[in-house]
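Input record, target 12 of the design panel.
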């Protein structure tokens, strides 16, 4: 079996960019190790790697033979070199160790690259040995404070190595405590000596400063800077404040809060503030407010913000406030501000815009046409914390210098100030950086049948993490998911085209330009019946019921007689009798009735009753029956008299109206003959009697004579009347009698019927004659039923 085995290899390449450093050993003037790095060039494989070897050669100087003491000594130092080699390494760094560092001598440094395909040397780096030196940091750094020089500090230190070996130069850096704004000062050297002290000047009095020192070879472009020494902090002496305090205000709960920051050049610790309030030219007050630090709030730039005083402007248009800062040395200049109850005037700042770039927030605005603006105050507030900065009147764009937090909403305002008077500001909300909301809105619902009303509360400001651009409503039923996007400025929405009696799951996501936050899921069930459906059913049932009631009412109205006949039997009502309301044709002249007499009765004898011969016995029997009815004082039927056997309709029927006509449709006329004698028996008295004839129209049931027709038939066999009927008319008790002339025209005789007592005196002649006439032919009389109806 034959084959070929191939290996991929690359020839070595020269190393480039060699750099070396010799670091000082602590507390010793030597630099025992030289460390070098370089850049590798070319390709390498796993099977064949290139190795690198650091080579350092120290050539000794050539000496003359005249300088040699012995030949042996001179022979050893003439043209002698020392070479130091590192171990081969595949990496790009190596080091060599010296027994003694070659001060003031040159070094020759190069790198050898080697592989199986050969080796190659890099370019040689030839420099003085001090070119590669990095000393230790200066030690024993001290800062001396001089009370007579409040703006300076004296700094002293020691070099890490004696100038016999290396002559060094120094550099100082310093900053205020808590700041990272370092200032650098190069310490100049004298011609004959090395400088190890320096006075820092133009410092702020009463401030803490952090100071550090480092050193390097004094020769230009030789050696490396050492590390910085340990920090030393010292405070400058205090001096009188030279700048005004930064006075500002904020409105809260209807009152003005006076706040301020320390003067920029406070020159010491502020112990108190002197405040003057002037409401009018004559009214004012002044007080000293101590500062103890407990009531201060640290602003974002670490400057203390002090609440000076709360004042109410409810009854005052404005107040002039002047504040001065006090330290242990003196008092600062005053800062004055006119604080109105409400910023007035037209808005003098237009075109305000807030933007962010490289982690900073920039505010830009247009300068007003008026030149009266003396300065601008840029205010930003979040979560109740306030901070501000002042800009010159020529500025129209600035960066907020405070330390802002991402995902926090800031209310940024630009106030124009005109000679201390605060004018109306411009405001905008802004974020340094926006993110997705940390939570979504919580949803509530009011479901209907085909729709559901959804509403939600805005996300809390600290949870938004950006400007809400839109809301997305997700709702699903039976795994059918739908969504609707609505603008970010609304908090309610009506879902439509839903199914009735169906459960829906709803959740809402709030979105910013950086992402979305999901809210809590909410479930609701639509109504089983729509309100309009229920209303339709109710209206339909109500209309049906109303129609039924209406038809029933109409039916009862038109069929009232049938219903009355079937449900309410007819019961006579004596109070509705028409006996007292007869309406015959009476004369207009009213005759005065005789006392205890019934007047106004006309009797017309049309025919003469004939008694059938041979029936005297029956006649007597009939007379006895008539006396029987008279003695019981009941109204007899139409057969109670031989001459009044024909019933007729009441003359008052036509006057009672249709209702009374219906109720009296079966009215029966009754008549009765009552003897005027006090005796009532089967055998009539022989003396003449006066009888009273009367009739009535009543709705009472028929009496015995009507209910027993056999009696009527028996009487009819005994008594026969002529074909001509006896006609009579009767006037009502409350109406006038018919004129006597009318009776004569009709061939009737008018009579007054009066009751006679058993032991009455002799009447007048006319009465006697009338009684004699009646004895020959007995007259029947009718007595009104005063007692009402009695059951038979």
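The sequence produced for target 12 reads:
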């Amino acid at each position: 079996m034959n084959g070929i085995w191939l290996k991929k290899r690359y020839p070595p390449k020269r190393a480039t960019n060699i750099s070396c450093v010799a670091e000082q050993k602590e507390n010793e003037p030597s630099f025992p190790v030289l460390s070098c790095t370089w850049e590798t060039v070319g390709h390498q494989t796993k099977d064949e790697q290139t190795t690198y070897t650091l080579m350092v050669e120290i050539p000794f100087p050539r000496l003359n033979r005249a300088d040699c003491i012995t030949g042996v000594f001179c022979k050893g130092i003439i043209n002698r070199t020392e070479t130091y080699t590192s171990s081969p390494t595949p990496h790009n760094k190596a080091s060599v160790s010296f027994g003694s560092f070659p001060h003031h001598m040159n070094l020759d440094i190069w790198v050898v690259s080697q592989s199986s395909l050969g080796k190659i040397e890099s370019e040689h780096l030839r420099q003085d040995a001090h070119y590669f030196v990095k000393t230790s940091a200066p030690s024993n750094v001290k800062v001396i404070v001089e009370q007579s020089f409040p703006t300076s500090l004296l700094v002293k230190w020691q070099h890490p190595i004696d100038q016999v070996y290396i002559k060094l130069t120094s550099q100082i850096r310093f900053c205020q405590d808590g700041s990272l704004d370092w200032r650098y000062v190069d310490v100049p050297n004298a011609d004959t000596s090395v400088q190890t002290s320096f006075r820092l000047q133009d410092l702020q009095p009463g401030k803490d400063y952090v100071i550090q020192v480092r050193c390097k070879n004094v020769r230009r472009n030789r050696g490396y800077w050492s590390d910085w020494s340990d920090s030393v902090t010292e405070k400058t002496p205090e001096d009188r404040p030279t700048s005004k305090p930064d006075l500002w205000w904020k409105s809260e709960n209807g009152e003005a809060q006076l706040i301020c920051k320390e003067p920029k050049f406070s020159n010491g610790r502020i112990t108190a503030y002197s405040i003057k309030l002037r409401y009018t030219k004559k009214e004012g007050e002044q007080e000293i407010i101590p500062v103890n630090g407990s009531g201060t709030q640290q602003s974002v730039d670490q400057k203390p913000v002090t609440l000076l005083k709360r004042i109410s402007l409810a009854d005052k248009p404005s107040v002039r406030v002047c504040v001065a800062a006090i330290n242990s040395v003196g008092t600062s200049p005053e800062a004055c501000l006119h604080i109105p109850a409400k910023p007035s005037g037209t808005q003098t700042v237009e075109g305000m815009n807030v933007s962010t770039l490289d982690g900073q927030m920039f505010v830009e605005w247009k300068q007003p046409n008026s030149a009266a603006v003396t300065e601008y105050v840029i205010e930003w507030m979040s979560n109740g914390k306030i901070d501000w900065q002042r800009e010159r009147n020529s500025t129209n764009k600035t960066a907020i210098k405070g330390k802002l937090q991402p995902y926090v909403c800031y209310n940024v305002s630009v106030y124009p100030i005109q000679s201390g008077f605060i004018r109306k500001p411009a405001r905008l909300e802004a974020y340094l950086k926006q993110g997705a909301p940390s939570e979504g809105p919580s949803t509530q619902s009011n479901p209907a049948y085909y729709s559901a009303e959804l509403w939600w509360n805005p996300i809390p400001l600290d949870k938004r993490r950006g400007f809400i651009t839109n809301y997305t409503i997700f709702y699903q039923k039976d795994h059918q998911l739908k969504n609707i996007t609505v603008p970010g400025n609304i908090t309610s929405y009506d879902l439509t085209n839903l199914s009735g009696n169906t459960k829906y799951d709803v959740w809402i996501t709030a979105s910013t330009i950086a992402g979305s936050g999901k809210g809590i899921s909410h479930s609701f069930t639509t109504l089983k019946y729509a309100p309009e459906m229920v209303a339709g059913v109710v209206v339909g049932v109500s209309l049906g019921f109303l129609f039924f009631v209406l038809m029933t009412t109409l039916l009862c109205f038109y069929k009232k007689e049938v219903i009355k006949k079937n449900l309410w039997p007819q019961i006579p009502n004596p109070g509705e009798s028409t006996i007292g309301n007869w309406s015959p044709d009476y004369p207009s002249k009213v005759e005065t009735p005789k006392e205890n007499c019934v007047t106004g009765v006309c009797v017309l004898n049309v025919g003469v009753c004939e008694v059938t011969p041979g029936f005297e016995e029956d006649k007597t029997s009939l007379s006895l029956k008539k006396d029987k009815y008279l003695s019981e004082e009941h109204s007899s039927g139409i057969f109670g008299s031989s001459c009044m056997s024909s019933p007729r309709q009441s003359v008052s029927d036509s006057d009672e109206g249709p209702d009374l006509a219906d109720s009296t449709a079966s009215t029966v006329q009754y008549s009765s003959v009552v003897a005027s004698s006090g005796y009532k028996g089967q055998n009539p008295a022989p003396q003449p009697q006066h009888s009273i004839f009367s009739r009535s129209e009543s709705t009472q049931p028929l009496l015995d004579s009507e209910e027993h027709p056999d009696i009527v038939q028996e009487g009819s066999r005994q008594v026969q009347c002529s074909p001509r009927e006896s006609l009579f008319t009767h006037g009502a008790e409350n109406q006038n009698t018919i004129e006597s002339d009318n009776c004569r025209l009709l061939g009737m005789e008018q009579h007054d019927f009066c009751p006679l007592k058993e032991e009455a005196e002799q009447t007048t002649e006319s009465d006697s004659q009338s009684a004699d006439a009646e004895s020959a032919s007995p007259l029947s009389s009718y007595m009104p039923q005063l007692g009402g109806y009695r059951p038979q």
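Residues 579-776 form one domain.
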